[in-house]
Known about the structure:
Blueprint lengths: L1 H26 L12 H29 L6 H4 L8 H16 L8 H23 L7 H38 L3 H14 L6 H12 L2 H22 L14 H23 L8 H33 L5 H22 L4 H5 L3 H28 L5
Helix pairs in contact: 1-2, 1-6, 2-5, 2-6, 2-10, 4-5, 5-10, 5-11, 6-9, 6-10, 7-8, 9-12, 10-11, 11-12, 11-14
Amino acid sequence: MDILQLVFSLLVFLFFLGSAIFSAQLRVGLVPAIAPELQETMLWAYTAALFMLALLCLPSVISSLSAASGGNPPRWLGAPMPALHWLPVVLFVLTLLIRLVILPEQPSQSMLSAELTALAVALPALWFLRLGAGSQWGKNPKRNSGLFTFSLSFTTYFILILEMVLFFAVVVGVLAALVRNPQVMEMLENLLSLLEGANLAPEELIELLAPLLSTPPIFIGILFLVALVIPMIEEAFKTLGVWLLKGRGISPAEGFVVGMVSGAGFALVEGLLNSAAVASSTSTDWLGFVVGRLGGTLLHIFNGGLLGWAMANAWQGKKPAKVVGFYFLTVLLHGIWNGLAILELSPQVIAAGNLTIIFLAVYALILLVAFVLFSRKVERQAAGSTD
């Protein structure tokens, strides 16, 4: 198992590193014919994101290499590291200050802006993991880092493939339905002619799509897909790596940690690869993306921890039905978040200003409080408290 984890982690590391190098080559124009239409800033963002993903695989490579050679993981991988209670927060604030205060309103085509975006996505995940793990931090570093790498690679892309298949199936169904509605088809053809060859900002794209999105059946269909179907898929498979531990006798506290780790891997791939969308955005749009990703990262980590905790309880013979209940709870939490986010596409909500952003911020704060309280409950259970 040590050798298997080492080989797998090393392959994933080399894949992300090689992809980052390839993206950097595109950036400097060594192979411009492959993607001449891509902006330099987006390529910088992909380079930074892929390089960050490669770095995140290193703990699994190092710990499995140590185990395969008969040694122990490096001390820093198993240390309590109390500094992580505050250091990621300090670095995150510094990242925000550098990006928002020092860099210009319209960022230049440089690696610095991309690196700051990658840090702003990754640092909150590290802090949430340290906050939720409590006394479990540093225990089982090889196993936890291996599951993290498994989530960064196999689990996340397995989910993305499922969602792509679902997306194409929905598109085919929608197009089949639109053929029967000449007015909607005419509207869609006009939009396609406007979008063809255009390089539109997100707000301009939403403005063009407003007539289509204001059609109730289409908007309800999008809301159903994003707020229910996608959460059901992601929450069902996000903790796929945790199932590999069935029969290992893990405690509920350990299940909570490995579930959080699995959720963090999914959240980081999603956030880092989506960062290219704000590569050339203004400071305000960039901050909105970072804050939104912060809430999304917390949601994925918390939901992963809930399911991991429920599975570990079930494997100890305590209420197997609890897994089903917690699954639907995570789908509900995820669906509310996605539903609030998708409301921003509604022309009526856009006209209301920043109301959706306020709702998302309040919901993220509620999730943070619930996450801390549940983490402390798990900590007390691990310590044998009867409170």
